[in-house]
Amino acid sequence: GENVEQHPSTLSVQEGDSAVIKCTYSDSASNYFPWYKQELGKGPQLIIDIRSNVGEKKDQRIAVTLNKTAKHFSLHITETQPEDSAVYFCAAPNYGGSQGNLIFGKGTKLSVKP
Amino acid sequence: DSGVTQTPKHLITATGQRVTLRCSPRSGDLSVYWYQQSLDQGLQFLIQYYNGEERAKGNILERFSAQQFPDLHSELNLSSLELGDSALYFCASSARTSGGWEQFFGPGTRLTVL
Known about the structure:
The structure holds two protein chains of two kinds.
Chain A: E1 4-7, E2 10-14, E3 19-25, E4 32-38, E5 45-51, E6 56-59, E7 62-67, E8 72-77, E9 86-93, E10 102-104, E11 108-113
Parallel strand pairs in A: 2-11
Antiparallel strand pairs in A: 1-3, 3-8, 4-5, 4-9, 6-7, 7-8, 9-10, 9-11
Chain B: E1 5-7, E2 10-13, E3 19-24, E4 31-38, E5 42-50, E6 53-57, E7 64-68, E8 74-78, E9 87-97, E10 100-105, E11 109-113
Parallel strand pairs in B: 2-11
Antiparallel strand pairs in B: 1-3, 3-8, 4-5, 4-9, 5-6, 7-8, 9-10, 9-11
């Protein structure tokens, strides 16, 4: 099955700075990589995902990049705001492909200081 | 709001007891996944159902069982509860979108075993 590693475990930035969270995966057959944001007391919320036929995807201040050769993908948040403070999880599908259960990284606690 | 509902929101019980957690997927989603989130283990996949049939199993204990009913709601049954079963339990549902299976999480059930 898949194995996902996520770094860093905690990240503190000043408001307006950029934040980058990195993940690596093990199964070269995986082709779908979602990112989730979990606020205190809530369930994980899908914020962006990328599929293996593209190298980068942007949605306003959030972008995700994928390097299939190196088997890593990253989340980039620009112009961070206090409301970006949360725990972020990367994930990859188990048993390759894009279907089925997800294997999650351990999470990154992002703190944005005003 | 993801459209996935879970009840109850909180559950406090004693060791040795049995509880049932309930999940209603988004309208039209056929797949339901159960995940356990504890502080030291992160988000762990337990079990997946697709249209009433068990599709995949993770590290689900023998004391735990689940089922998906004809109306597609799902229940997770936890028995002979131990202190270590205290955790957040999330349900997610998915439907195929272009290129992948996005999973949407419910708000979770916080289980406390005393």
